[in-house]
Design a protein that fits this description.
There is one protein chain. The chain is mainly α and about 170 residues long. The chain has a single domain (about 5-165), classed as Orthogonal Bundle (Arp2/3 complex 21 kDa subunit ARPC3), CATH 1.10.1760. Helices cover about 70% and strands about 0% of the residues. It is built from seven helices and no strands. α4 runs antiparallel to α6 (about 110-130). The two termini are about 25 Å apart. Keywords: Membrane, Transmembrane, Transmembrane helix. This is Rod shape-determining protein MreD.
Protein backbone atom coordinates (compact mmCIF):
# COMPACT_ATOMS: atom_id res chain seq x y z
CA UNK A 1 0.00 0.00 0.00
CA UNK A 2 1.15 3.48 -0.75
CA UNK A 3 1.50 6.23 1.80
CA UNK A 4 -1.47 8.09 0.29
CA UNK A 5 -3.72 5.02 0.58
CA UNK A 6 -2.73 4.47 4.20
CA UNK A 7 -3.30 8.14 4.98
CA UNK A 8 -6.77 8.07 3.39
CA UNK A 9 -7.70 4.85 5.22
CA UNK A 10 -6.54 6.27 8.55
CA UNK A 11 -8.38 9.55 7.90
CA UNK A 12 -11.58 7.62 7.03
CA UNK A 13 -11.46 5.48 10.18
CA UNK A 14 -10.50 8.32 12.52
CA UNK A 15 -13.18 10.68 11.21
CA UNK A 16 -15.91 8.03 11.49
CA UNK A 17 -14.83 7.10 15.02
CA UNK A 18 -14.55 10.70 16.20
CA UNK A 19 -17.95 11.47 14.65
CA UNK A 20 -19.83 8.56 16.20
CA UNK A 21 -18.07 8.55 19.57
CA UNK A 22 -17.84 12.30 20.24
CA UNK A 23 -19.66 14.60 17.82
CA UNK A 24 -22.90 12.60 17.52
CA UNK A 25 -23.43 13.29 21.23
CA UNK A 26 -23.23 17.06 20.84
CA UNK A 27 -26.69 18.58 20.55
CA UNK A 28 -26.43 22.20 21.57
CA UNK A 29 -29.77 24.02 21.82
CA UNK A 30 -31.39 21.44 19.54
CA UNK A 31 -29.95 23.00 16.39
CA UNK A 32 -26.18 22.59 16.54
CA UNK A 33 -24.87 19.17 15.59
CA UNK A 34 -21.38 19.16 14.05
CA UNK A 35 -20.70 16.64 11.30
CA UNK A 36 -16.93 16.71 10.85
CA UNK A 37 -16.82 13.35 9.07
CA UNK A 38 -17.55 15.15 5.78
CA UNK A 39 -14.02 16.52 6.01
CA UNK A 40 -12.99 13.24 4.35
CA UNK A 41 -15.02 14.17 1.27
CA UNK A 42 -13.97 17.81 1.32
CA UNK A 43 -10.20 17.20 1.36
CA UNK A 44 -10.09 13.97 -0.67
CA UNK A 45 -7.41 14.29 -3.40
CA UNK A 46 -8.86 15.79 -6.58
CA UNK A 47 -6.90 13.61 -8.97
CA UNK A 48 -8.19 10.20 -7.82
CA UNK A 49 -10.68 7.82 -9.43
CA UNK A 50 -14.13 9.43 -9.27
CA UNK A 51 -16.04 6.13 -9.10
CA UNK A 52 -13.92 5.02 -6.15
CA UNK A 53 -14.47 8.41 -4.52
CA UNK A 54 -18.27 8.22 -4.81
CA UNK A 55 -18.18 4.66 -3.42
CA UNK A 56 -15.99 5.76 -0.48
CA UNK A 57 -18.37 8.66 0.17
CA UNK A 58 -21.28 6.21 0.26
CA UNK A 59 -19.32 3.94 2.62
CA UNK A 60 -18.50 6.89 4.85
CA UNK A 61 -22.15 7.97 5.07
CA UNK A 62 -23.29 4.39 5.52
CA UNK A 63 -20.91 3.87 8.46
CA UNK A 64 -22.21 7.00 10.17
CA UNK A 65 -25.80 5.91 9.42
CA UNK A 66 -25.20 2.50 10.98
CA UNK A 67 -23.82 3.98 14.18
CA UNK A 68 -26.37 6.81 14.29
CA UNK A 69 -29.40 4.73 13.32
CA UNK A 70 -30.38 7.43 10.85
CA UNK A 71 -31.80 5.39 8.00
CA UNK A 72 -29.50 6.40 5.15
CA UNK A 73 -29.67 10.21 5.27
CA UNK A 74 -25.90 10.54 5.76
CA UNK A 75 -25.16 8.14 2.90
CA UNK A 76 -27.48 10.03 0.55
CA UNK A 77 -25.98 13.39 1.48
CA UNK A 78 -22.41 12.09 1.15
CA UNK A 79 -22.98 10.53 -2.27
CA UNK A 80 -24.60 13.73 -3.54
CA UNK A 81 -21.73 15.78 -2.13
CA UNK A 82 -19.11 13.53 -3.74
CA UNK A 83 -20.90 13.66 -7.06
CA UNK A 84 -21.17 17.47 -7.23
CA UNK A 85 -17.78 18.25 -5.63
CA UNK A 86 -15.95 18.85 -8.96
CA UNK A 87 -18.25 21.79 -9.72
CA UNK A 88 -17.33 23.45 -6.43
CA UNK A 89 -13.64 22.66 -6.84
CA UNK A 90 -13.68 24.44 -10.19
CA UNK A 91 -15.73 27.34 -8.81
CA UNK A 92 -13.52 27.81 -5.73
CA UNK A 93 -10.07 27.14 -7.15
CA UNK A 94 -10.37 27.76 -10.92
CA UNK A 95 -7.26 26.90 -12.91
CA UNK A 96 -5.60 25.18 -9.96
CA UNK A 97 -8.36 22.55 -10.19
CA UNK A 98 -8.10 22.36 -13.99
CA UNK A 99 -4.50 21.19 -13.65
CA UNK A 100 -5.37 18.77 -10.82
CA UNK A 101 -2.76 20.40 -8.60
CA UNK A 102 -4.81 21.36 -5.53
CA UNK A 103 -2.95 21.14 -2.24
CA UNK A 104 -5.37 22.14 0.51
CA UNK A 105 -2.61 23.19 2.89
CA UNK A 106 -1.30 25.65 0.26
CA UNK A 107 -4.63 27.24 -0.76
CA UNK A 108 -5.42 30.74 0.51
CA UNK A 109 -7.91 30.97 3.35
CA UNK A 110 -10.64 32.78 1.37
CA UNK A 111 -10.89 30.11 -1.32
CA UNK A 112 -10.79 27.37 1.29
CA UNK A 113 -13.57 29.06 3.29
CA UNK A 114 -15.81 29.40 0.22
CA UNK A 115 -15.21 25.78 -0.78
CA UNK A 116 -15.76 24.37 2.73
CA UNK A 117 -18.87 26.53 3.28
CA UNK A 118 -20.53 25.55 0.02
CA UNK A 119 -20.01 21.83 0.54
CA UNK A 120 -20.95 21.85 4.22
CA UNK A 121 -24.18 23.78 3.65
CA UNK A 122 -25.20 21.56 0.73
CA UNK A 123 -24.49 18.42 2.76
CA UNK A 124 -26.45 19.71 5.73
CA UNK A 125 -29.38 20.93 3.63
CA UNK A 126 -29.72 17.53 1.93
CA UNK A 127 -29.26 15.62 5.17
CA UNK A 128 -31.75 17.66 7.22
CA UNK A 129 -34.27 17.74 4.36
CA UNK A 130 -34.21 13.96 4.22
CA UNK A 131 -34.17 13.58 8.01
CA UNK A 132 -37.14 15.89 8.67
CA UNK A 133 -38.88 15.29 5.31
CA UNK A 134 -41.78 17.64 5.94
CA UNK A 135 -42.40 20.73 3.80
CA UNK A 136 -44.19 22.46 6.67
CA UNK A 137 -40.96 22.33 8.70
CA UNK A 138 -38.86 24.25 6.17
CA UNK A 139 -37.89 26.86 8.79
CA UNK A 140 -36.56 24.11 11.06
CA UNK A 141 -34.57 22.63 8.16
CA UNK A 142 -33.01 26.01 7.38
CA UNK A 143 -32.25 26.71 11.06
CA UNK A 144 -30.56 23.35 11.58
CA UNK A 145 -28.65 23.69 8.30
CA UNK A 146 -27.45 27.18 9.12
CA UNK A 147 -26.45 26.68 12.76
CA UNK A 148 -24.95 23.21 12.38
CA UNK A 149 -23.27 24.30 9.15
CA UNK A 150 -21.52 27.26 10.74
CA UNK A 151 -20.30 25.13 13.65
CA UNK A 152 -19.15 22.36 11.29
CA UNK A 153 -17.27 24.83 9.06
CA UNK A 154 -15.46 26.32 12.05
CA UNK A 155 -14.48 22.87 13.36
CA UNK A 156 -13.36 21.64 9.92
CA UNK A 157 -11.22 24.73 9.36
CA UNK A 158 -9.63 24.37 12.80
CA UNK A 159 -8.93 20.69 12.19
CA UNK A 160 -7.36 21.31 8.78
CA UNK A 161 -5.21 24.12 10.17
CA UNK A 162 -4.06 22.05 13.15
CA UNK A 163 -3.33 18.87 11.19
CA UNK A 164 -2.04 20.30 7.92
CA UNK A 165 1.52 19.53 6.97
CA UNK A 166 3.68 22.60 7.05
CA UNK A 167 4.87 23.90 3.67
CA UNK A 168 8.60 24.28 3.20
Amino acid sequence: MTKVTLTLAARFIILVLVQVLIFNHIDFMGYINPYIYILFIIIFPANNNRTLFVFLAFLLGFCVDVFSDSGGVHAAACVTLAYIRPVFLKFSFGTVYDYQSIKFNQIDFGSKLIYFSALVFIHHLIMYSLEIFNISKVILIVQKTLFSGIFTIILCLIITILFSQKCK
